[in-house]
Automatic annotation (TrEMBL), chain A:
Pfam families tied to this protein: Rnf-Nqr
Annotated membrane topology: Multi-pass membrane protein
Compartments reported by the entry: Cell membrane; Endomembrane system
TM stretches of this protein: 12-32, 44-62, 74-95, 102-125, 137-161, 173-194
SUBUNIT field: The complex is composed of six subunits: RnfA, RnfB, RnfC, RnfD, RnfE and RnfG.
Signal peptide start and end residues: none
Family, similarity comment: Belongs to the NqrDE/RnfAE family.
BP GO terms, sorted: electron transport chain
Alphabetical keyword list: Cell membrane, Electron transport, Membrane, Oxidoreductase, Translocase, Transmembrane, Transmembrane helix, Transport, Ubiquinone
EC number: 7.-.-.-
Any one GO molecular function term: oxidoreductase activity
Protein name: Ion-translocating oxidoreductase complex subunit A
Automatic annotation (TrEMBL), chain B:
This enzyme's EC code(s): 1.6.5.-
Pfam families the UniProt entry points to: FAD_binding_6, Fer2, NAD_binding_1
Signal peptide (UniProt feature, chain positions): none
Gene3D superfamilies: 3.10.20.30, Nucleotide-binding domain of ferredoxin-NADP reductase (FNR) module, Translation factors
MF annotations from Gene Ontology: iron-sulfur cluster binding; oxidoreductase activity
Originating organism: Thermosipho japonicus
Name of the protein in its database record: Na+-transporting NADH:ubiquinone oxidoreductase subunit F
InterPro entries linked to this entry: 2Fe-2S_ferredoxin-like_sf, 2Fe-2S_ferredoxin-type, Beta-grasp_dom_sf, Cbr1-like_FAD-bd_dom, FAD-bd_FR_type, Flavoprot_Pyr_Nucl_cyt_Rdtase, FNR_nucleotide-bd, OxRdtase_FAD/NAD-bd
2Fe-2S ferredoxin-type domain boundaries: 32-125
Occurrences of domain FAD-binding FR-type (ranges): 128-232
Keywords: FAD, Flavoprotein, Iron, Oxidoreductase, Transport, Ubiquinone
Length: 197, 367
């Protein structure tokens, strides 16, 4: 049964109230390692949004027309990952040809998205919550934008924090993790506004 | 039926996606025929676009030195690019100095040939060949250095002091061919046979292969010659310093000078080792000293195991060199430095040579 949520509501909810990163803690590893610079964070955020939207839509179709009819639910993870890997490959080639400057600024981050668990997470949530195709596309796009927003926010905070007098043992990853915790708590403030489960 | 269904469906999905990738690749990555202009029109190549410059040039038998084989991890395959090939990639920047960026020097393994491109290459690279040699002898010269003699199918012209790259085939857990650079230890008079000195580096891909897997009679791919380390044609005295397998290019240079009758120059060869068991070719150079009055071989041990039996110099090679520069070597002649060994040793030696007024220092650093 499909949850009766307007795709637009789902779109905004996945950016703010149910941010994939700050409420589900998915895609943390690149979130922490790339957020040192604003430029890289922007590039990665853009790439994640693109891949997330496209793979969620394709995986929805694969789920409906391949996985369910052939009762292959137990192979869902493998099939989703294969789709994500292929989409990243194709996207890499297309971006390289059509927007070489964007390709250069994304650098090695683009192929790394294949193993970003937020991408798989969104596809699995989409299936688990029985979203329609339109809902899934908006959910994927919103989650991507939410991830982008979170990493850019963290990068901006880290630039400020780097100049602040932090106790030596907390410098680097320590203060970053604390920052993420506080950011997540701040985003929890949105959580009561709407439930997208 | 069900047993076959799952792999079949996964196989079909994978095949469809793979076919899609191949189709997109053939459409998107089809850059058609592009032209590579080398050294302002001296050589023009018509090639298929889309591949990295390093591999495109290699397919046309022009081999740019690359110790890592094109993975962007050695920074050796630098090429000056005269036309626009886009911004620097994050993978290139760690290997570039500010001056190199100003001159638009790029890593040829990282930039792709997508349109007509103009580049500048040293003329010597046109002589570089890729040959499949045969290992005719494999000898332990110390407990951790092997002398590998390779018979080549055709002659190569190199200057004493230059190096070649060997292509290590996949073995054991190493799944991809790997390239590593080694100085030639033999003299250029033997054009179809080269000697390499390879020290076992624990965990090293190429050195482990040579020490534990390579056998006499095996084939080994060799690309070369490369390098700017060779004897400069002056009449200055030569201060040569080497450590360990840094012996190779100096041995080649010294023996080549003797063979060609360039014996009027004074040559001081300081060879540093830790203990007696790290010394090699001592007899060879002691013999040469007797035949060539201007040649002086000074082996030095930093930690001799039997100090009472060792009658040579003791101490770090830099200290021994300074001792000779200050007390033994004629201070009034012009001098050049020739160094080969670890970066630490070379940096220390270069600094000391400069302090003693020797500005022309040439070296071959182990990368």
């Amino acid at each position: 049964m499909n949850p009766n949520i307007n795709p637009l509501v789902l779109f905004f909810a996945s950016i703010f109230t149910s941010n994939i990163l700050l409420s589900n803690f998915l895609g943390m590893c690149s979130f922490i390692s790339i957020s040192k610079s604003l430029k890289s964070s922007n590039g990665l955020g853009m790439a994640v949004t693109m891949v997330m939207t496209i793979t969620t839509a394709i995986n929805w179709l694969v789920e409906k027309y391949v996985i369910v009819p052939f009762q292959l639910e137990y192979l869902r993870y493998i099939i989703y990952i294969i789709v994500i890997a292929a989409v990243v490959q194709i996207l890499e080639m297309v971006i390289d040809r059509t927007a070489p400057n964007l390709y250069i600024s994304l650098g090695i981050f683009l192929p790394l998205i294949t193993v970003n668990c937020a991408i798989l997470g969104v596809a699995l949530f989409m299936q688990l919550r029985n979203y329609t195709l339109l809902q899934s596309i908006f959910f994927g796009l919103g989650s991507g934008l939410g991830w982008w927003l979170a990493i850019v926010l963290l990068a901006a905070i880290r630039i400020k924090v780097d100049k602040a007098p932090i106790p030596a043992p907390l410098k680097g990853v320590g203060i970053t993790l604390i920052t993420i915790g506080i950011m997540a708590m701040a985003f929890m403030g949105f959580a009561g506004m709407i439930n997208v489960q | 039926m069900n047993i076959w269904l799952a792999p079949l469906i996964v196989g079909i999905v994978s095949s469809v996606l793979s076919a899609l990738i191949v189709i997109v690749d053939s459409i998107v990555n089809n850059y058609g025929e592009v032209e590579i202009d080398i050294n302002n029109g001296k050589k023009k190549l018509k090639v298929k676009g889309g591949s990295p410059l390093l591999f495109t040039l290699a397919s046309e038998n022009i081999f740019v030195p690359s110790a890592c084989g094109g993975r962007g991890s050695c920074g050796a395959c630098k090429v000056k690019v005269l036309s626009d090939v886009g911004e620097y990639l994050p993978t290139e920047l760690p290997y570039m100095s500010e001056e190199e960026i100003k001159e638009n020097i790029r890593l040829s393994c990282q930039i792709k040939v997508k349109k007509d491109i103009k580049i500048q290459l040293p003329e010597e690279l046109f002589n570089v060949k890729k040959l499949t040699g045969k290992v005719v002898s494999l000898k332990n010269v110390t407990h951790d250095i092997k002398e590998v003699r390779i018979k080549l199918p055709e002659e190569i012209n190199f200057k004493a002091g230059q190096y070649v790259q060997i292509v290590v085939p996949p073995y054991d857990k190493i799944k991809q061919p790997t390239q590593r650079a080694y100085s030639i230890a033999s003299t250029p008079s033997k054009k179809d046979e080269i000697d390499l000195l390879i020290r076992l580096v624990p965990g090293g891909i190429a050195t482990t292969y040579v020490h534990n897997y390579l056998k006499e009679g095996d084939n080994l791919e060799v690309i070369g010659p490369f390098g700017e380390f060779y004897m400069r044609d002056t009449d200055a005295d030569m201060i040569c310093v080497a450590g360990g397998s840094g012996m190779a290019p100096i041995k080649s240079i010294v023996l080549d000078m003797y063979e060609r009758g360039i014996t009027n120059r004074n040559v001081w060869y300081f060879f540093g080792a830790r203990t007696e068991k790290d010394l090699f070719y001592v007899e060879l150079f002691k013999d040469l000293e007797k035949k060539w009055s201007n040649f002086h071989f000074i082996p030095a041990l930093s930690r001799p195991m039997e100090p009472e039996k060792w009658d040579g110099e003791v101490g770090l090679i830099t200290d021994v060199m300074v001792k000779y520069l200050e007390n033994v070597v004629d201070k009034n002649t012009k001098k050049e430095g020739y160094l080969c060994g670890s970066p630490g040793m070379i940096n220390a030696c270069e600094k000391l040579l400069n302090e003693h007024g020797i500005k022309d220092v040439y070296y071959d650093k182990f990368a």
